[in-house]
Amino acid sequence: MDIESADRPQKMGKLGQILVTRGWITVQQLTRALKNQNVGGGRLGTCLLEMDGLTEELLLRGLAEQHGVPAAGIEDLRGIAVEVVQLLPDKLARRCRAVPFRVEGGRLDVAMMDPRNLSAQDEIAFASGKRVKVHVAHEIRVLEALQKYYNEEAGSRFSLVLDRLNRARFLWDKREEPKPAEEPHLTQVLPLVDSLLSPPPPRLAPPPLPEPDLPPTPRWPRTVAPLPPLAQAPPLAMPAPPRPALAASAAPQPVAAPPAPRPAPVPPAKPAPAPRSLSVALTPEERVELSAAIRRAPEPATLEEAEAALARAGDLDQIGEILLAFLGRGYRRVALFRVTRDRVFGWMSKGAGIDMGQFSGFSIGFDQPSIFLNLRHGNNLYLGPLPPMPAHRELARTWGGDMPRDCVLVPVRLRDRLVTVVYADGAPKGVGGIDIAQMQRLAAATATAYERCALQRRRDGTKP
Questions:
Q1: What fold is seen in the domain 292-460?
Q2: Nearest-CA neighbor of 54 among 367, 341, 371, 368?
């Protein structure tokens, strides 16, 4: 009834240093979190989650690396069997900040905030009568489990962070409720949006093509045979003007030479029959696309007007133009990024110094650290300076290289999948002038517009 020797903590690194080294947070974010910790207390990971500096998954990976023990994830701490909870007395669980979550034979898996507390582990092993395998969990989820299973009241500060994390991830109570049957077409929304947001293939010089086969003869002639040349009509002979009678006494007057005969006008040729038109009537879907392409995007002045315009948008390009037109009023630079399963691409942009050609060619993968990677892992937004990482410097080169100190990046998600990122910097009052609630409402309206456009194309039977 002891702790497995292999499960005792082996590593004692610093969490902040690990997170910065891995590129999951920046030095500025770590400094800010440490300041918040000095003022408000709590664990460093809690402060980072509170300021939305990184995701729970990355925090758990950092804690596991710091302590050298496995991590207890969110799925481990929800739906714990009653008989497992009863293995640990309430007072001991609350005092040790420990939650048992799984029994395998004679072994008890326990999630703890501090795996270095060996005396607490010995107490748990003695009370449960089982060998203890220690897992690390971050403070927020341990407090949530203690509140749920052992009636330990979490403070208001932690309750606010818990509520935000659970609403963002649809965890626990929302997942345990029976889900209503989804409409069949919703399962096809993401593939449609993925295909709509997929960037065009890179432009390459086409190789020389072989001589193509001639197409079959169409129903109408592609060329009209030339008409035979018209025979030149001979000039008509003009009769000489009559000579006036001369008086007998009058001297003979010289007779003016008759004017040169004018060539007869050539009779107009018979007009050739007009060839049949080579145009093909547009389908209703093509007319919709053409009208959407040629009409100008509205320029909403208020958030409500922008939301109404997004609700009327007919395609993804118009959605992007609405966002650029509205945000361009209050920010120096605005940019939109397409997101696929493994990469981020520059899509549309507007603002000071942006080279549209370079921006449209911008692309980074999720195999390198960046804010985009944090957003993909679940962060609700990023607010602050653009961190000096290689991926961000590559982005900054598209507008001249300066690294703004007051940028905001907001994700647009469909069914928890990141599909677009909205970027803005240069607010009139810096970071303090960025309206986070406004940006989040725009992201929600954009996601709704994406889904509506994708479903409309599906109903129309058009291929993205």
A1: Beta-Lactamase (3.30.450)
A2: 371
